[in-house]
Amino acid sequence: MIKKEMIAMLLAGGQGSRLGVLTSKVAKPAVEFGAKYRIIDFPLSNCINSGVDTVGVLTQYQPLRLNSHIGIGIPWDLDRNFGGVTVLPPYEKMANSEWYTGTANAILQNLAYMESYNPDYVLILSGDHIYKMDYEVMLNFHKANKADLTVACMPVPLEEASRFGVMITDGNGRITEFEEKPAHPRSNLASMGIYIFSWPVLRDSLMALKDQENLDFGMHILPYCRDKGKNLCAFEFTGYWKDVGTLGSYWEANMELIDIVPVFNLYEEFWKIYTKNDMIPPQYISADAKIYRCLVGDGTEVCGDISNSIIGCGVTIEEGAVVRDSIIMQGTVIKSGAVLDRAIVAENSVIGERCVLGIGDNIPNKARPDVYSFGLAVVGENTQIPSDVRIGKNTAITGITVPEDYPGGLLDSGETLDKAGVLV
Predict the structure, then answer these.
(1) What pLDDT sits at residue 94?
(2) In angstroms, what CA-CA distances link 421 with 24, 114, 411?
(3) φ, ψ for residue 70 (rounded to 5)?
(4) pTM for the full model?
(5) pLDDT per residue as tens digits for the range 173-183
(6) Which of 245, 303, 327, 373 has its CA 20 to 30 A from that of 213?
(7) Taking Cα atoms as reference points, which of 216, 46, 224, 232 lies closest to residue 136?
(8) Long-range contacts for 264-270 (Cβ within 8 Å, ≥24 apart)?
(9) What three-state secondary structure class fits 394?
């Protein structure tokens, strides 16, 4: 049997509910990022840049666009006869049929896929983080420490540590204790949700806990390995890493790309980020257009004034339109005279003439204050907003809307307008 030294299992089935309307029809890893990429491009590019050429992508929630984007893996050089990329959705079995019910349960349901490569090591990844990491360096650390399980960790401010799984080490990189989202963390070394297992340890752990409900790595697999006396090590990562799990962190991570010296650099020759590239025309910038500190995707036409913004592919910004501090995704049309401040507009939407988004007071959203915050106006994909409408902050709009949906031509700050029937 031909074998692989290390294969990767990429968890990409998450809904990403804290991204609100951005993930109502698409899985979080398939959300656009940085004008031309999708979030999943980053771990996939990390794999091929690290020499990992066998990747199982575990999908579940709204997988169509994600599956289409990945295809057979050509953009990432993962179209291989042996190995490459394989999409792994849940499937019906002889005994039962069930969805993936936890991170480790998803891996458990794909034991046969992993066994077919007889790997020495298995790399577990999340499909919804923005970062660059050389997994080969982490593997060398795992080998050097004769670890059974290595957890990638990074220091975070102590006041934020309660949001993560926290590792406590002995000073030599060995994990002695860990706490899952502790109220009073004793360490600031947070798990990144990236693991390297020696294959026999992973296989035996999954089989031992196969009847555990909602089987999860942090809650179940790590404690089991510790209690069995396995050698658990923490690999400390000091580079850029961001979980874009909220609208605020998603907006912030995009805006960081256009800093004068970006903390996350998309232009490094030695560590390229690859993506599916639809063959579309180049940008067109009119003589009267004004552009300041923006990323602009292919096929976009700019005739208005844009600043401090991320503009996706195939976008049209008509004459007299103004876009500031915003994210505009592919295929969207911003009509003449429209003004957008701190807006996120999802794919294939139309913002009508003379509309104004992002006005008024920073009032919390009435329906979902935990999601629609940060002073943003968020527009779902395939949404149409009629002309001469004013929309406040911390708002969400989705669907084909008409003037009658905006009493007095206004959607106040903190309000939600759902004409697509996707919000709860």
Answers:
(1) 42
(2) 10, 39, 18
(3) -75, -45
(4) 0.93
(5) 899 888 888 88
(6) 245
(7) 46
(8) 264/130, 264/132, 264/240, 266/34, 268/132
(9) coil
